[in-house]
């Protein structure tokens, strides 16, 4: 019997052919900008995977802008310009922020939507003081550790064409929200909302069905996927690197880890992974994968090997 799936699946070689005649060359300064995003990022990966991906996203955005102008014609007046919103989901350490930054750099090149902003849902974690009170310090990243209402309010403002929206900021150095500090977003053309929780649908409290989800505001959603073996290896490698960078800063919450030996670092990172991030992945993140419009499957070295695209 034929197997039905809501997705079309492309191997990376087939996907690379979907560039067609879009200029796929990058200027020297664009290459430099992308290398600044992540020094390990391969430029072949950018040309073969991310350029076709952003070509597709650009077509979607053009379609949405045309729909907007049709609505203006219908009303006989100009309505507020609202941003196209893209959600990027996936496990801790899968590369969501890197993916968001690559997409931002590439989408900014198109003349019809040069202003792209990124919102990280880390900023909507409750401050440590609140998490401690609620007994959630070992549940950072779980649905209950976020102020999802505040995130939804931010998305409502953006989709209402607000002139400016203030976004709270999380510091990985302090492992906490920065008190009384906000970044201001002013009428962008595109917003990329990146975080492990962006495709989650909260469990309703009895008799009180939630009316809006974060993903209701997305025009497009992407899930970055990888096997847990790869994720754990990337998490441990990042942890080992952080010993000589962020952890070495005396102000770092994890300064006590700066002098761990390789063996101790692997043990500590693996234990954090197993006790927190792996449980969260299995219970709360992975189950949201099939809600995404696009699934990017990565294998070793962050190479994207398969692209799944939801049939319209
Ligand atoms: N496309 C890529 N090519 C090479 N290395 C990558 C790529 N994407 C991510 N990495 C590496 O993988 C690790 C995790 O990436 P990143 O910080 O982007 O993940 P994340 O999903 O945003 O993580 P978190 O949820 O913990 O904030 C980093 O060490 C990063 O350098
Ligand atoms: C901030 C989150 C939740 C998500 O980015 C994550 O990076 C995190 O801190 N998880 C908690 C366990 C850990 O320290 O890895």
UniProtKB/TrEMBL annotation:
Enzyme superclass (EC): transferase
Localization annotation: Cytoplasm
GO cellular component: cytoplasm
UniProtKB keywords: ATP-binding, Coenzyme A biosynthesis, Cytoplasm, Kinase, Nucleotide-binding, Transferase
One GO MF term: pantothenate kinase activity
Gene3D superfamilies: P-loop containing nucleotide triphosphate hydrolases
Pathway: Cofactor biosynthesis; coenzyme A biosynthesis; CoA from (R)-pantothenate: step 1/5
InterPro entries for this protein: P-loop_NTPase, PanK, PRK/URK
Enzymatic reactions: (R)-pantothenate + ATP = (R)-4'-phosphopantothenate + ADP + H(+)
Gene Ontology biological-process annotations: coenzyme A biosynthetic process
Residues that, per the record, bind ATP: 90-97
UniProt keyword Transferase, yes or no: yes
Phosphoribulokinase/uridine kinase domain segment(s): 85-243
Keyword Cytoplasm found: yes
Pfam families to which the protein is assigned, alphabetical: PRK
EC code(s) of this entry: 2.7.1.33
PANTHER family in alphabetical order: URIDINE KINASE
UniProt record similarity statement: Belongs to the prokaryotic pantothenate kinase family.
Protein name: Pantothenate kinase
């Amino acid at each position: 019997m034929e197997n039905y799936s809501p997705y079309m699946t492309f191997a990376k070689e087939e996907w690379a052919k979907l560039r067609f005649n879009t200029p796929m060359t990058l200027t020297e300064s664009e290459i430099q900008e992308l290398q600044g995003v992540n020094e390990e990022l391969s430029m072949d990966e950018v040309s073969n995977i991310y350029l076709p991906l952003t070509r597709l996203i650009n077509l979607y955005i053009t379609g949405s802008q045309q729909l907007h102008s049709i609505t203006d014609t219908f009303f006989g007046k100009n309505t507020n310009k609202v941003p196209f919103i893209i959600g990027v989901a996936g496990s801790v350490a899968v590369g969501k922020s890197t993916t968001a930054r690559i997409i931002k750099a590439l989408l900014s090149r198109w003349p019809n939507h040069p202003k792209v902003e990124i919102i990280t849902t880390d900023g909507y974690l409750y401050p440590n003081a609140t998490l401690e009170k609620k007994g959630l310090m070992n549940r950072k990243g779980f649905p209950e550790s976020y102020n999802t209402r505040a995130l939804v309010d931010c998305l409502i403002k953006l989709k209402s064409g607000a002139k400016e929206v203030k976004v709270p900021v999380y510091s990985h150095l302090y492992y906490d929200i920065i008190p009384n500090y906000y970044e201001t977003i002013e009428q962008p053309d595109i917003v990329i909302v990146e975080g492990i929780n962006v495709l989650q649908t909260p469990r309703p409290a009895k008799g009180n069905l939630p009316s809006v989800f974060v993903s209701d505001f997305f025009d497009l959603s992407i899930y970055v996927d990888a096997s847990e073996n790869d994720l754990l290896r990337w998490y441990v490698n990042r942890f080992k690197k952080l010993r000589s960078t962020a952890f070495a800063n005396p102000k770092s919450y994890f300064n006590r880890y700066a002098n761990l030996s390789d063996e101790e670092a692997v043990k500590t990172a693996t234990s954090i992974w197993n006790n927190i991030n792996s449980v969260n992945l299995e219970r709360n993140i992975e189950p949201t994968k099939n809600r995404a419009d696009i699934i990017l499957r990565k294998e070793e070295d962050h190479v994207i090997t398969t692209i799944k695209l939801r049939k319209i």
